[in-house]
Design brief:
The complex is a heterodimer of chains A (540) and B (315). With 540 residues, chain A is of the alpha/beta class. Chain A has 2 domains: 224 residues, 3-Layer(aba) Sandwich (Rossmann fold); 251 residues, Rossmann fold (3-Layer(aba) Sandwich), CATH 3.40.50. Chain A is built from 19 helices and 20 strands. With 315 residues, chain B is an all-alpha fold. Chain B has 2 domains: 72 residues, no CATH class; 227 residues, Orthogonal Bundle (MetI-like fold), CATH 1.10.3720. Chain B has 15 helices and no strands. In chain B, helix 7 packs across helix 8 and helix 9 packs antiparallel against helix 10. The longest helix of chain B is centred in the first third of the chain and has 36 residues. The chains are: A alpha/beta (540), B mainly alpha (315). Chains A and B meet through helix 2, helix 3 and helix 5 of A and helix 1, helix 9, helix 10 and helix 15 of B.
Chain lengths: 540, 315
């Protein structure tokens, strides 16, 4: 018998149809993967089961959990279920915990509420649960506050809250999307262990097909609120009978077509980084003692040829973004020099940097946050033009914007629109248009596709590859996603604790990693091919 | 935490010294000779000069500042020209009215505002929210003396529950004294409560969209428990800021209410001292208020740290 059974579920919020005739079931001890792109209704399915939907939402159909009709249940009944029989883990570990309460209070709170036990008994159980999720008492006493913990540690606390009372069903909504691959692998292992321990059902929601394939026994593929395909993970993904399933799988493994990389042996290097170090003052323990320094980047040297595409990979906090900021002359190295087109950029003033700024641009991770919502596309894309020596006339400016938009596959009429009129993928095209409008020689891209859905991500990767071929732009891709590195770069630099620990041709490094840090990244990275093969073996 | 505390303390002391210099300087620059004012228009130049010497008005500026400032530290504010009594006695007498009045008004404002803010935020956009925020809008718009007059009419004239004005003094007993402060405190508290309720509501609404609220709901806590246990404390920072500002206002900005109720408070003291050019009294009361405001700000800063652990660990 199923633990959770969803039949003919339709959901509307206001006038918008979110889910249509949704079907899904989870058995005890089973992992059900719910896959879909953003806006497909995955999270709303979870919130329907929890009955934590927005005020204007209306659900019809049948949702039954352990024999209880969820859609007809009263708020009191739901309160008794939530946190006791159904636990939920959310996407954003950085904000999912109350900043003004200790982790002990937050884990113990649900235990006390449901079991009506004493504070001491609840805290003892909370302690055991935190130990279980890998936060031992010596380093993580109950009195710790969330801000004293890293993202991965906070997600463990959230899991401890959700699993404290051994729920029958755990819903995990993109539990690892905000974490780097090594942490992701650890958290997923923890979830599988918890499932095995108490025959808990797990509804795992993710946009990442590889992650779901590694984890789930069965899989449900959702698109625009409708179930496209559902079944055993191995069979579904190996046969790929449904066109949308095939489309998703192909997009996940997409490698853009690129001619052989530019010849990098001859000519002057475009970028030379020599012995660059960056220290930050750490936290001061006392008023009278000097603060210890934290070395974010430690004696890093690298060189890039014109037109070359290089990946800088590493776990979060390894110093890759700090290094990128120094290359872009947005931050000053504590030691070492950076040369761009043969000229030193370190230690120069803004006016002297102008010619260099013209030739290097940046693309950020978040296509939603990187545009001023009150400005039109024309102005946003034209922003970097102020580094030109001669200020272009209005007509010239429009001409240049139109050209840049055309190059990234947008229409020139789009320049009179506002950012909110574009989808996530289109916005990332806009930020690429903004980056290439000055005809730069180097584009630094900080996780440029990690916020995008797989099919959009494939298109954007194609665009990067095309611009590399057509305009000869060199790329420095900063990422923790090895599939991106593999798809689009010639060389890879692996960074760990501020140092570059391994470098070489992308395929060689990713197929035969030598350093421990690189090996950790490669083994932890979800890979759809590998995951399907493993599933096939297990499920026959 | 100690670093935070020491830093706040140092900033407060520096502000106090700076403020004292400004207060002293401003009153020095203002036209009008206190000696002449005290002696009246018919006094001769010699008499004025004699008094100026007596009062130390002819000493160098810096010396006079130091003398005045050290006097303040030992609570020796000098003598009032018009009342001919030590200023400290005047102030003490007036504070016995103004301080309890401010505290009662502040307490009332908080007791009204926080539940209204919670109620409104939890029913955002529904009838209860619209009604209570409409009332708050009215409370902000209507001046407090109008409330005062209405209160007098209803509770003193019509129901005869409390006196319409005046202050019997604490020697007449705690209850009669409190009774005469009740109406002015309510009149003062209503507009303040209206502002505070709006601030509480908007701070709560912002906090209620945060992810940890959803985490708390997923634990099985009912909505009301989430509101009290998780949302309120996170919404406290803007509320505390406004409370601090309101206390400073309630201590000294109550002159209209004091006049409506014939209360011998600090506001009236300053007002009379200014019209009579009793500079020593003005200086002293202003310094006292500055010190009170700085102290309240310090308390507010420290309460931020109590509410938010992130401020404790930051430098």
């Amino acid at each position: 018998m199923s633990l959770l059974e969803i039949e003919n579920l339709s959901l509307t919020i206001g006038e918008t149809q979110i889910l249509k005739d949704m079907e899904l079931s989870v058995a005890p001890g089973e992992v059900m993967g719910l896959v879909g792109e953003s806006g497909s209704g995955k999270s709303m399915t979870a919130l329907t089961v929890m009955q934590l939907l927005p005020y204007a939402a209306r659900a019809t159909g049948r949702v039954s959990f352990d024999g209880i009709d969820i859609l007809a249940a009263s708020e009191d009944q739901m309160c008794a279920l939530r946190g006791d029989d159904i636990g939920m883990v959310f996407q954003e570990p950085m904000t999912a915990l109350n900043p003004v309460k200790t982790i002990g209070e937050q884990v113990a709170e649900g235990i006390r509420w449901h079991t009506k036990t004493t504070r001491a008994a609840a805290e003892e159980r909370a302690r055991k649960m935190l130990d279980r999720v890998g936060l031992p008492e010596a380093k993580f006493p109950l009195s710790r506050y969330p801000h004293e913990l890293s993202g991965g540690q906070r997600q463990r606390v959230v899991i401890a809250i959700a699993c404290a009372l051994k729920p029958k069903l755990l819903i995990a909504d993109e539990p690892t999307t905000a974490l780097d691959v090594v942490l992701q692998a650890q958290i997923l292992d923890l979830l599988l262990d918890l499932v095995a321990e108490s025959r808990m059902g797990l509804l795992l929601i993710s946009h990442d097909l590889a992650v779901v394939t590694e984890m789930a026994d069965r899989i449900t593929i959702l698109r625009r609120g409708e179930v496209m395909e559902a079944g055993d993970t191995a069979r579904t993904l190996s046969e790929q009978l449904h066109p949308y399933t095939r489309q998703l799988a192909q997009a996940s493994m997409h490698v853009p077509a690129r001619a052989r990389p530019h010849d990098t042996s001859q000519g002057k290097p475009l970028l030379q980084v020599e012995g660059v170090t960056r220290d930050y003052p750490g936290r001061r323990a006392s008023l009278f003692r000097r603060a210890p320094t934290i070395r974010a980047v430690d004696d890093v040297s690298l060189s890039m040829a014109p037109g070359q595409s290089v990946a800088l990979v590493g776990r979060s906090g390894c110093g890759k973004s700090t290094l990128a900021r120094m290359i872009l002359a947005l931050d000053k190295p504590s030691a070492g020099t950076i040369r761009f087109r043969g000229e030193t950029v370190t230690g120069k003033g803004e006016a002297e940097l102008k010619p260099a700024r013209r030739d290097m641009q940046v693309v950020f991770q978040d296509p939603y946050g990187s545009f001023d919502p009150r400005q039109k596309v024309e102005k946003l894309v034209a922003e970097p033009l102020h580094v030109l020596d001669k200020k272009p006339t209005r007509a010239e400016r429009r001409e240049m914007v139109a050209h840049a938009l055309h190059e990234v596959g947008l229409d020139q009429r789009d320049m009179d629109k506002y950012p909110h009129e574009f989808s996530g993928g289109q916005r990332q095209r806009l930020s690429i248009a903004r980056a290439i409008i000055t005809r730069p020689k180097l584009v630094v891209a900080d996780e440029p596709v990690s916020a995008l859905d797989v099919s959009i991500r494939a298109q954007i990767l194609d665009l990067f590859a095309e611009l590399n071929q057509k305009l000869g732009i060199a790329y420095l891709f900063i990422t923790h996603d090895l599939t991106v590195a593999r798809a689009i770069t010639d060389e890879v630099l692996v960074m760990h604790d501020g140092k570059i620990v391994e470098r070489g041709k992308t395929n060689e490094v990713l197929d035969h990693p030598q350093s421990e840090a690189a090996r950790a990244l490669v083994t932890a990275a979800p890979d759809l091919h590998r995951a399907i093969a493993k599933r096939m073996q297990e499920q026959g | 935490m100690t670093t935070y505390l020491l830093k706040r303390l140092a900033i407060s002391l520096a502000t106090l010294v700076l403020a004292s210099i400004v207060v002293f300087a401003v009153l020095e620059i203002l036209p009008g000779d206190p000696a002449r004012l005290m002696l009246g228009m018919n006094a001769s130049a010699d008499q004025v000069e004699l008094l100026r010497n007596q009062m130390g008005l002819n000493a160098p500026l810096a010396l006079r500042y130091l003398h005045w400032a050290s006097g303040l530290l030992s609570l020796d504010f000098g003598r009032s020209y018009t009342y001919s009594v030590p200023v400290i006695d005047l102030v003490r007498e007036r504070l016995a009215v103004s301080l309890p009045l401010a505290l009662i008004a502040l307490a009332l404002s908080t007791i009204i505002a926080i539940p209204v803010g919670l109620f409104s935020a939890s029913r955002r956009g529904r009838a209860g929210d619209t009604i209570s925020m409409g009332a708050a809008q009215l409370g902000v718009a209507v001046p407090n003396f109008w409330f005062a007059l209405m209160l007098i009419y209803i509770f003193a004239v019509w129901l005869r529950l409390v006196p319409a004005g005046g202050f019997p003094g604490w020697s007449a007993g705690v209850w009669p004294a409190l009774k005469s402060l009740l109406l002015p405190a309510i009149a003062l508290a209503l507009p303040q409560a209206a502002i505070l309720a709006r601030v509480t509501r908007s701070a709560l609404i912002e906090v209620l969209n945060d992810d940890y609220i959803r985490t708390a709901r997923a634990k099985g806590l009912p909505y009301r428990a989430v509101l009290w246990r998780h949302a309120l404390r996170n919404a406290m920072i803007p509320v505390l800021t406004i409370l601090g500002l309101q206390f400073a206002f309630l201590l000294a900005g109550t002159i209209i209410i004091e006049n409506v109720f014939y209360l011998p408070g600090l506001g009236r003291l300053v007002f009379q001292a200014i019209t009579q050019r009793d500079l020593i009294v003005v200086e002293s009361v202003v310094m006292l208020l500055v010190a009170a405001v700085i102290a309240v700000n310090l308390i507010v800063d420290l309460s931020y740290a109590v509410v938010d652990p992130r401020l404790r660990s930051r430098q």
